[in-house]
Amino acid sequence: MKSNVYLIAAVCLLLPCLSWGQCAPPSPSCSGCSPLTADNQNLSSGTYCISTTVSNINILPGAVVCISAPGSIVNGNLSGGTLIYNGGTLTNFNANSGDLRIQGALTNTASTGLNGARVIVENGGSLSKTDLDVNWSLVVDGGTVDISNLFRINGNGSVCLSNTGQIHTQYLQNNSTNGTTAQSTKGCISISNPQGQTNLNNILTNTSNVFVCLPGSFTPSNLGSATTATNCTNCTTALPVTYAYFRAQPLQKGVQLEWQTTNELRHSHFIVERSINAIDFQSVSGPVIDPFGTRNDTKVYRYIDGEVSQGTFYYRLKQVDTDGSFAYSKLVAVNLGDQNAAVRLFPNPVVDQLQIRFDTEEMGIVDVELSDLSGKEWLSQSGNKTEKSHMQQLNVQSLPKGFYLVTIRLGNQYFIRKLLK
């Protein structure tokens, strides 16, 4: 897990964009999933969790499979269904069709093909490979793709960027006529060697929402309408605003929003927007201009929404440029209400072993993150909740003494607890 409050991104793949205005539909939920432990399965319906080793798994249309560490799939096929990758290993796995949604860190995997499915790298997720050929669809929705050698978009391939998703590669080749696009939430492609094997046979993009970061003054031909940044070291310096974090914390009354920027170019102001369904948003603030504090060129902003009580609320930032153009941040969600009975931490203060007890009806993957009050992540853990009463243990013996925030996600439920070490 990557931040104190989990970011929920509603993510359009093929033009024109669909009604949610992003690159792909929202991710299915892993809540209520059934543990999958048996080999030799053809899955055509239902939602399943994998946290152990299974082999010969075929994921057909209608099935959703969620894998988290230490789970492993050996000899598997994605054949029209959905695989949500939070962690674990894939060996001899072929994504032939359907959706592969990457929410964890997926690195070079043994004999694994990604050439037929729609690959969606979501917020907090990363895909790292030596070479990557895009033959159908790649969506980078707030996540990161790192290619150490050649990134190539082939004839039927398409790339869509949103929520400031980033692609880093040494060489880029574009043979696709579908083009690369980005939503108003923008995205960036960083090319460390724009000469060499870089070759754009077709126009890369028709939108200025695609930012291209180049290390020197050389600019490849056929970038199209891309916004180019020369003498650029990475995508962080190419995008108008780069967020270090954006999080929401329940207060005794209302919600405190806090975000930190590490880069602001052509930036005018922010507007805080709120939703009860992650689709329909309304503005709850005027222009937020002045940061709460500035240190080493990083700026911290805070806004308190005191007009909410019980329920789950979704927030995003509308970042407005000096020319009036704007982009949306990732989403954060927060749950307000009496959560004390649902999730308990003990002992608190803690010395070495922290027990986390859940008493909720919802089943599925439980993600736990422990961070200090500055936002630095110290520990994270995932577990599979299969019964109403569920216990997880976190080893905190090596942590320095002090105050911490424990953030817990279970499906669409979010819990935040204070902890003293």
From TrEMBL:
Species this protein is from: Larkinella rosea
Signal peptide: 1-24
Highest taxon of the lineage: Bacteria
Domain Secretion system C-terminal sorting per the UniProt entry, residue ranges: 345-419
Keyword entries, A-Z: Signal
Coiled coil: none
Identification of the protein by name: T9SS C-terminal target domain-containing protein
Gene3D superfamilies: 2.160.20.20
Membrane-spanning segments: none
